[in-house]
Design a protein that fits this description.
With about 850 residues, this protein is an alpha/beta fold. Helices cover about 25% and strands about 25% of the residues. The structure holds 2-acetamido-2-deoxy-beta-D-glucopyranose (4 copies).
Length: about 850
């Protein structure tokens, strides 16, 4: 059974109580479907869009409009307002001569500075000289080009029978061009990177000036394409490392082309420069960039095709490009460009963030071991390693996955996004690290001698990286055999690992995660079970059909959806599932049908009449008696708020054999006693009803103890009281009473406590901590003399006020002094007299009357 979207909406309502969800402004077009930290940059770039935001009351981003936040490639974007948080801890070495130079180098090699260089090196290769003419501009070495009104001739393609890719001879002289003034010398001098995935030189070198205007009317165009189009030469689509290099360069190219409000639009074409039909298990990733089908050259063979707007994006194997085997300056990490790419893809593919943890149970660090099902680089003792992790005293939550070409890629991303420590052997699957949360740690179990590949990728993405270092503690199955030359090769065998050493490295990774500020922030932000309950109670009250008389149908539908969402989130197993992989997993499982009515447990059966008289105006119905009960709650619960579960046996009426008299009423009857004599009398008249019997049913009710509630506050559970055979049951009313506490006494919002101190402390001063009701410490320092019965006040350390939980009462601490019980020696007595040098006082008075 699939869950309705409206139910899913309530997930976010319940879990999102504290997490600010990424709200997209109502006025924003779908094209701005971006993470919020990206929207702020976008709005600061396009003032016109920002103004629309400012003028619309519903824009969530109004308060960021004047912050000056930028991406980092704009001409006047200071580093501290840019997107990047790249940094270079420690010393510098290698190519650079100073710390600032080291950071600068990193920014331009691997961050938004790379975009800036591309933008700055763009020059016109073919220049329009009048309105409506064509244009071609490219960055250095023709790594990126952008054209307007371009002509491409694919009439030779049908002659090529074999499907092809990575070809440099798709176009010949004159098969690409436009009406503009070509700078032939400039173009040819940039066309030096002649390799299929390094530059657009193999194509652009054939560019020619054309006599005709290129537009919809042109005779030379068999097809005219109006939609902006990205023409892409892509790497190996079966390999995540390589294929994501394509996506990464496409994302970077959005910024390089930039400078127009539609820069993140999904209404674009992607045309792949090959004649194979595109197929890849990662294919869903395109949907982050386009809503249209992926085209290839087959779509246009035999035709002359003209493009109004076309971009030839950066390529995956450029010299000093990103990220294929590029040397990056030593010591720096956390590229903003990689961070932005990661968040962009996750956002657009709608991968949920880690949502909820129950902090009552200690949050557990989530470990994911990526297992390989290939011929090489298997972990021979995988089970032993997993067992070791599972029995670690650090109580890891451990999962093993195998991602195959059949595993839904969005599912893979959901699992990755919910991982703290990611473990795997060297191989393309480790590219998943791009999508780990910021605090995560990668453990490349063994890098097989290829030490830079994933270490660098992790460094660029800004996640922590570790790998196996002690070669004596790892055993290869054999020396490995390279599939082509047969020689020994570390990548072509299997390995087993020393369990102790393995655990040692994982523990280090866990230390990193636990210390990471983003992880700690996450823990502090996640809603607790109680917060979800609270949110549910509040929403349930608002949405209850009784409260929404003008549209009861809609209200009851919403109400049921809310119930289904709550039911899922309150079931520990489903909750775990939801935490791990979001709405879709729990929806596949199906919701509802559990038989539990979450509403009844908070409000009682039927739920009528909370907060007032729900039955107003209706005719009087017989009602059973209310049951009033005291509910003793601890001061701790009243201090922090809590939900307590109470189980009660509710007598309910069930059909039974036979009949019974019912609806009995008194009626007047007239009886003739004799001629002319009548007697009027009252008589009980009853109907015959099916018989009923009382059966005890066990019910679980959840009572919310709100912060600062006072004794006598009542919570009513409708129809949970005494049954009435001919009417409705009465209500159950629970009255809050504070149970006595061994440390604190409550008077109004104030708390009182007593502390016994020693005589020495009383005279010489002291410091102490009192543990408060929620465990926080109240620190007390005295350097003055403290006499028995002395009282100090601590502001704000009393109980929270019921009406306003942010106000707290006073804490009064009264001291008594424990005098030494043993006899003091004469010598000590002498010393004391001497030290205190106090005269005798001996005042006699009537203390009872206060004289
Ligand atoms: C590239 O940018 C130009 C404006 O600078 C814009 O008109 C064009 O549509 C963009 N191309 C794509 C494919 O987005
Ligand atoms: C590697 O492990 C061996 C065997 O336990 C040990 O003797 C050696 O000191 C370790 N080497 C390093 C560099 O830690
Ligand atoms: C590695 O393990 C796989 C699966 O057990 C096996 O097929 C393969 O032959 C092993 N490779 C080597 C080099 O032993
Ligand atoms: C404890 O403190 C209260 C006031 O807070 C005081 O009335 C009472 O006498 C104290 N008890 C002792 C044993 O000192």
């Amino acid at each position: 059974m699939w869950m309705k979207t409206s139910t899913m909406y309530f997930f976010s309502q319940l879990v999102g109580v504290l997490i600010l969800s990424e709200v997209v402004c109502e006025w924003l077009p779908e094209t701005l479907n971006l993470p919020s930290s990206h929207v702020t940059r976008y709005l600061n770039t396009f003032k016109c869009e920002a103004e629309k935001c400012y003028n619309s009351g519903s824009c969530m981003y109004r308060n960021v409009l004047d912050t000056g936040l930028c991406w980092g490639y704009e001409t006047n974007c200071p580093h501290h307002l840019g997107y990047s948080s790249a940094h270079c801890p420690g010393d510098h070495k290698g190519w650079v001569s100073s710390k600032p130079q080291q950071l600068q180098t990193f920014l331009s090699q691997a961050d938004f500075g790379f975009v800036k260089q591309q933008i700055q090196s763009k020059t016109l290769m073919c220049e329009p000289t009048a309105d409506g003419e064509s244009l071609l501009e490219c960055s250095s070495y023709l790594q990126f080009c952008r054209g307007k009104s371009l002509y491409l001739d694919f009439r030779d393609l049908p002659a090529r029978k074999e499907s092809f890719r990575y070809k440099m001879d798709v176009l010949k002289k004159g098969q690409i061009g436009g009406k503009c003034k070509l700078n032939e010398y400039r173009l040819q001098s940039e066309a030096t990177h002649q390799s299929p995935l390094q530059s657009w030189a193999p194509e652009m070198q054939h560019f020619e000036e054309l006599p005709d205007f290129i537009n919809e009317e042109s005779q030379v165009c068999d097809i005219f394409i109006n939609k902006p189009t990205f023409i892409m030469k892509i790497d190996a689509t079966v390999n995540m490392y390589h294929h994501f290099c394509d996506f990464f360069n496409l994302y970077t190219s959005l910024h390089v082309n930039g400078s127009h409000p539609e820069m993140f639009s999904r209404d674009v074409n992607i045309l792949i420069w090959e004649t194979y039909a595109y197929h890849s298990n990662f294919g869903i990733t395109w949907s982050a960039f386009t809503q249209n089908p992926i085209l290839n050259l087959r779509s246009f063979q035999g035709k002359r095709v003209c493009f109004r707007e076309v971009v030839f994006p950066l390529l995956p194997r450029m010299i000093f490009g990103l990220y294929y085997n590029t040397p990056i300056v030593w010591g720096c990490r956390e590229s903003g460009l990689f961070h932005a790419f990661s968040k962009f893809i996750l956002h657009r593919l709608k991968i949920p963030k880690r949502a909820a943890i129950d902090p009552v149970a200690k949050p557990r660090i989530k470990i994911l071991l990526l297992s390989r099902n290939t011929q090489y680089r298997r972990i021979l003792n995988e089970k032993a390693l997993l067992d070791a992790l599972r029995s670690s005293p650090r109580q890891y939550s451990v999962e093993r996955v195998e991602f195959t070409h059949e595993t839904d890629f969005r599912h893979q991303l959901r699992v990755i996004q919910d991982t703290d420590i990611f473990i795997g052997m060297h191989g393309a699957g480790l590219t998943h690290l791009l999508f780990l949360p910021d605090w995560a740690s990668v453990f490349e179990l063994y890098n097989c001698g290829d030490e830079h590949c994933y270490a660098d990728l992790a460094r660029l993405r800004g996640v922590h990286y570790q790998t196996w270092t002690n070669h004596t503690k790892l055993k290869p199955q054999d020396e490995g055999h390279h599939p082509s030359d047969g020689g020994p090769h570390a990548k072509f065998t299997n390995y087993s690992f020393d369990t102790k050493e393995f655990l040692r490295i994982v523990d280090l990774a866990a230390d990193h995660v636990a210390k990471h500020p983003a992880y700690r922030h996450l823990l502090s932000q996640l809603p607790t079970t109680n917060q979800i309950k609270k949110a549910y109670r509040k929403l349930a009250k608002e949405l209850h059909p009784d409260r929404n008389q003008d549209n009861t149908e809609k209200a009851s539908a919403q109400f049921q959806d809310l119930g289904a969402a709550y039911e899922t989130l309150s079931d520990p197993e489903k909750r775990e599932l939801y935490d791990r992989c979001g709405e879709e997993c729990v929806s596949k499982e199906g919701a509802g049908g559990g038989g539990m009515d979450p509403f009844a447990s908070f409000f009682g059966d039927f739920g009528f009449g909370f907060g007032g008289n729900g039955n107003q105006g209706q005719q009087e119905v017989a009602k059973g008696a209310d049951i009033v009960m005291d509910l003793f709650v601890t001061l701790e619960e009243l201090y922090s708020g809590n939900f307590v579960e109470i189980t009660h046996n509710k007598p309910v009426l069930k059909p039974a054999k036979g009949t019974r008299k019912c609806n009995c009423r008194q009626e007047m009857v007239t009886r003739q006693l004799g001629p002319g004599r009548f007697q009027m009398m009252q008589q009980a008249v009853c109907d015959e009803c099916p018989n009923v019997k009382l059966v005890n049913e066990e019910r679980v009710l959840e009572v919310e103890i709100e912060q600062g509630m006072t004794d006598g506050s009542e919570q009513r559970f409708t129809a949970e009281g005494e049954p009435h055979t001919d009417g409705e049951p009465g209500d159950l009313r629970l009255r809050i009473q504070t149970a006595p506490h061994s440390i604190f006494e409550r008077r109004g919002d104030d708390l009182y406590t007593n502390v016994t101190i020693s005589l020495a402390d009383a005279l010489a001063g002291f410091e102490l901590d009192i543990e408060h009701l929620d465990g926080h410490k109240v620190h007390i320092v005295r350097d003055k003399v403290t006499w028995p019965g002395a009282r100090i006040r601590k502001k704000g350390e009393g109980m929270p006020n019921y009406e306003n939980n942010n106000l707290f009462g006073m804490l009064y601490v009264t001291f008594d002094v424990q005098f030494p019980k043993e006899e003091l020696s004469t010598e000590v007595k002498e010393k004391l007299r001497e030290l205190l040098s106090q005269d005798s006082i001996n005042k006699v008075y009537n203390g009872l009357r206060g004289f």
